[in-house]
Amino acid sequence: MDTNLFGSFEDEPQIDLTPLIDCLFMLIIFFVLTMSFSKPVLEVILPKATNAETSQARNELLVSVKADGTLYLNAAPATIEEIARALDEAPERLLNIYMDEEAPFSRFVAVMDLAKTKRNGRFVISTRRPESPESASP
Q1: What per-residue confidence (pLDDT) applies to 122?
Q2: How far apart are CA 91 and CA 109, in angstroms?
Q3: Per-residue pLDDT at 20
């Protein structure tokens, strides 16, 4: 006989997973919709360096990005391709990047990508010293 005081072995309690699966499905839908409607905006505020050092090396390539997004290589206007070519021709020279704080972020990304691929991440980003309270205009 396969019965005991509490009933047969065939009447064991079972856990119904359907409500749990429904809740997980609703959470997944919620997170997917939330991510798809959020704005993909990245606001970056570049700070001023408080301990900026003057560059002493003269054997360097100077890449400047002006506020309007124009590129300069050693004070001469250049394109991103010309800068890449100069980096390939002089691998021993230090890459020093001067980035205007008003420059478009897309230019910043392009120059950083180039610096990372051509110099394996070995480059210098030059900054300007913050204005002292005495020299700042009221």
Answers
A1: 80
A2: 21
A3: 92
CA–CA separation, 32 and 79 (whole Å)? 40
pLDDT score of 6: 58
Query: Phi/psi zone of residue 47: left (φ > 0), alpha (ψ -120 to 50 degrees), beta?
Result: beta
Residue tagged 């990304």 (tokens): 109
User: Is the model's pTM score more than 0.70?
Assistant: no
Question: CATH 3.40.190.10: does it fit domain 60-126?
Answer: no
Q: Tokens 């100069």 correspond to what residue?
A: 86
What amino acid is encoded at 80 in this protein?
A: I
**What's the CA angle centered on 121, arms 113 and 40, to 5 degrees?**
40
Longest dimension (CA), the chain: 99
Q: How many CA atoms lie within 13 A of 88 on its CB side?
A: 7
Query: Domains of the chain: which residue ranges?
Result: 3-37, 60-126
Intra-chain end-to-end CA distance of the chain, in Å: 98
Q: Which two tokens stand for residue 33?
A: 């919709």
What is the mean pLDDT of each successive set of 10 residues along the chain, which is 138 residues long?
A: 57 85 94 74 55 58 87 88 88 85 86 84 72 47
